[in-house]
Amino acid sequence: xxxxxxxxxxxxxxxxxxxxxxxxxxxxxxxxxxxxxxxxxxxxxxxxxxxxxxxxxxxxxxxxxxxxxxxxxxxxxxxxxxxxxxxxxxxxxxxxxxxxxxxxxxxxxxxxxxxxxxxxxxxxxxxxxxxxxxxxxxxxxxxxxxxxxxxxxxxxxxxxxxxxxxxxxxxxxxxxxxxxxxxxxxxxxxxxxxxxxxxxxx
Length: 202
Ligand code: ASP
Prior knowledge:
Blueprint: H1 7-19, E1 41-49, E2 52-61, H2 68-77, E3 82-84, H3 85-94, H4 105-108, E4 134-140, E5 143-150, E6 171-174, E7 178-181, H5 186-189, H6 194-200
Parallel strand pairs: 2-3
Antiparallel strand pairs: 1-2, 1-5, 4-5, 6-7
The structure holds aspartic acid.
The site of aspartic acid (ASP) has 13 residues, from helix 5.
């Protein structure tokens, strides 16, 4: 990456490319919707270096093709660390983000029980196969960044949030030690400080 790109911007770039990938059904713009047929995305980013800790997260974000840019914007320019749903959307609009490339109709119209024709060529989801997370960990010049993004679980209840955007559960970083990011059943993981524990054991 060029010198001008921060390690967190590089992490966000990598995650965004997965969010926009139409073959990925569990992250970003083409992911499985919730039980109401709406895509709600969760994402978070943490950046640490000795003496400095920065982070941002969004939960249940609707109307955008991805959520990592929103988490990044919260980290960079919000006085809070976590924004949810319509509040996250309002903040993004105030920051000049426009959901102009979203919602993506084919994704939002995607039925919960039956995959649309565009998915016909794709392997049908198997039990336990209907959720995933993209997680990226990078370090550069002593700055460690961990980011993640997910649409949670296929046919989740509206407003459901798993481990991914919860600091210490879905992702964690400690300067001079390391970082961790989780994937798996967020309804189980979010009950525990899983990634905090993993980094603590490093
Ligand atoms: N942990 C994610 C969630 O439940 C999904 C996954 O990583 O499989 O929100």
